[in-house]
Design goal:
homodimer; alpha/beta; Arc Repressor Mutant, subunit A; D-Maltodextrin-Binding Protein, domain 2; 3 domains; 7-stranded mixed β-sheet; 11 helices; DNA-binding
Chain lengths: 297, 297
DNA sequence: CGGCATCCATACAATAAAAGCATGGTAATA
DNA sequence: TATTACCATGCTTTTATTGTATGGATGCCG
């Protein structure tokens, strides 16, 4: 049983005649007659009333005709949609983003650009820290993630650097450090620091600590936080100073000031990460948009 | 492009393996591999991710799989429905009935029996006089009709007698005729008659007049009416007497009495009429029900 | 009234499509 | 390292579909 037979049937109904439909298709009339008979046999009902001046629909044929037309239309739609999904133009894309970056203009611009270029791909953005994103990617719960420090040389995951951020010192507006901006880490000896809790982002935390220790500097931590918004508020409240990726300063509260330090040159790459098997074509499109925007500082 | 390919695809998805699906179908594995490839070509997208331990759906394949399953299910439904329509078990039946008979218990019983036996055939009952029903039948605006005096030896229409009614004299309850019931038409000479307007039901009217004249009786008509309910009310109001099919007395108002006359023996057959081509199978079912109930007096 | 054109149906030959068979490559497993 | 299960490919056989020729029936028009 064949879609072809349905198409033949529609043509015959439209023409009101087997012969004329056969000329239109084109097909030899006996072949068409035969296919109609096969269709009727497979349906188990007479669909066409044969007469001298052509054929007309029976009641059953009329109902079947409506259904056949709908089925063919929907089949074409299904094929078209499958093509669009395979091309990354349609579907759903589950994207992980760290809270920290949801506010960053570059990321917002990227997401907006993607939405505009691929309006039929519905972006499901989830705010997750880096490590959970990696896990979710591996378990096919995310299709792409924006995170720091993806696993190196992973056989499943592939990544692309979206943006290379640098770190800045953040102090409260009225503080002594704001009035006399330091130039080096060494000048921060003895200052109170608000620091990321290690458990939240262990890789970031360890890399930062390591970078500082290489400069012979160990911060005096008076408070720990799990997200940058909270931490910036603590800084604004005068609890101490902190180190932040520069990007995240965009949404910072009023009472804080960022200061670039000469020897704080650690590069913090924000990576777009996805499964190497490229299981979801829309991910490729996201990578394309990211590359075309070239968010590099 | 083939429904068969869709079924193959579903089997493969269900089994998660081309080889296993091939064994299930059953089909040689290379044949299945080839049909899948053809399907993918026709869709224009890769639907299955081939690997060592079987196949899995791509994003496009997953969406297409849902659609394919739906399409196949709906195709089966369409076939099934067509069969049921062809068998008269499903669809719509437009039935004409004269107002006069809508109230008659025999007819009500017939319609109820039909509804019960064929609950999926929706009866669209239209109240029409006999002549308009014949016209509507010819123009395919009705599928069947219940009426008096269908055209004889019609090449389009066929008919079946539902019920042979007889005529009765109807008088008002308190009248002289009610107190001293006449036995023959001759006794009605000089009585005031309420009569059917000829234009409403010319055939019935003419036959009735003709039957009376054969008995040498000509009614003295004081009032004409187009429907029996009105006419019975006029009788009840004492305007005169009338002649009615006995059947229609069921719904008659309180103030009337019917009297059988010995020489008023004209038979009034209520006919079920339909197009001979039996274009609508449900009509055959209606005829069956009518015959099985055998409404004959 | 009788050719003529136009339907749809049938029979049979030609062609195209699908299936089967044999085989190969590859990766996981024991 | 041999085995097994998987999918892919080449070739042959079988099946399905189409085309050609033809027939019967009916309506049209000279």
């Amino acid at each position: 049983m064949d879609f072809k037979q349905l198409r033949y049937f529609l043509a015959v109904v439209e023409e009101g005649s087997i012969s004329r439909a056969a000329r239109e298709i084109p097909l030899a009339q006996p072949a068409l007659t035969r296919q109609l008979r096969l269709l009727e046999e497979s349906v188990g009902a007479t669909l066409l009333e044969r007469s001298r001046h052509g054929v007309s629909l029976t009641a059953a044929g009329s109902a079947f005709h409506r259904e056949a037309r709908r089925l063919l239309r929907e089949f074409e739609t299904a094929k078209h949609d499958a093509r669009r999904i395979a091309d990354g133009q349609l579907g759903q894309l589950r994207l992980g983003v760290t809270v920290m970056h949801l506010w960053v203009p570059q990321i917002v611009r990227l997401l907006n650009q993607f939405r505009q270029s691929y309006p039929d791909v519905s972006l499901k953005v989830q705010s997750l820290l880096s490590a959970p994103q990696v896990e979710a990617l591996r378990h096919h719960q995310l299709d792409a993630g924006m995170l720091f420090f993806p696993p190196q040389d992973d056989d499943q995951l592939d990544s692309h650097c979206l943006y290379e951020d640098r770190l800045v010192l953040v102090v409260s507006k009225g503080s002594r450090l704001a009035r006399h901006p330091p130039k080096t880490l060494a000048e921060l000896t003895g200052e109170d620091f608000i620091w990321f809790e290690r458990s939240a982002t262990p890789v970031y935390h360890d890399k930062l600590i390591h970078a500082f220790q290489r400069r012979g500097f160990t911060p005096h931590v008076v408070q720990e936080g799990t997200d940058n918004a909270t931490m910036l508020c603590l800084v604004a409240a005068g609890m101490g100073c902190t180190i932040m990726p520069e990007m995240t300063m965009t949404g910072a509260p009023e009472g804080v000031v960022s200061i670039a330090l000469d020897d704080l040159d650690m590069v913090l790459p924000l990576m777009l990460v996805w499964r190497r098997d490229a299981s979801l074509p829309a991910v490729r499109r996201l990578i394309d948009v990211a590359e075309s925007l070239a968010l590099s500082r």
